[in-house]
């Protein structure tokens, strides 16, 4: 999200005797302990926001699935569970694991349960 994405929106508030221009950040962002803004899915807070961006695209091999203020997380490695990769991870979705690798067995439909060696 660029600084332009958080540009100030001018709002006119009027009371019976006066009118005031109030500058509100748009869109209104929720402050967090890590950063004072939230990044959209597929992005993380930019460690150097002085370059004109508050959020940057997740680096390769990482993802962010929701609006948050945390760094992108690494994709799950199906090979650690001896499973095949059913769908590669993207900047907004984690890797989806599928069936067990050849020579291994395990429950189907439970992608993060480790497969066991066939004996």
UniProtKB/TrEMBL annotation:
This is Tumor necrosis factor receptor superfamily member 19L. The gene is Relt. Residues 58-97 form the TNFR-Cys domain. Belongs to the RELT family. The keyword Isomerase does not apply. Keywords: Apoptosis, Cell membrane, Cytoplasm, Disulfide bond, Glycoprotein, Membrane, Phosphoprotein, Receptor, Signal, Transmembrane, Transmembrane helix. Residues 1-31 form the signal peptide. Its main location: membrane.
């Amino acid at each position: 999200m660029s600084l332009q994405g958080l540009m100030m929106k001018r709002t006119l508030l009027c009371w019976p005797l006066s009118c005031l221009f109030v500058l509100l950040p748009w869109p209104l962002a929720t402050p967090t302990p890590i950063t004072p803004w939230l990044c959209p899915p597929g992005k993380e807070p930019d460690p150097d926001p002085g370059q004109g961006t508050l959020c940057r695209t997740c680096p390769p091999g990482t993802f962010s699935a929701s609006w948050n203020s945390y760094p992108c997380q690494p994709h799950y490695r199906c090979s650690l569970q001896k499973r095949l990769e059913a769908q590669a991870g993207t900047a907004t979705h984690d890797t989806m694991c599928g069936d067990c690798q050849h020579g291994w067995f395990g429950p189907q439909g439970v992608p993060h349960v480790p497969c066991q060696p066939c004996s």
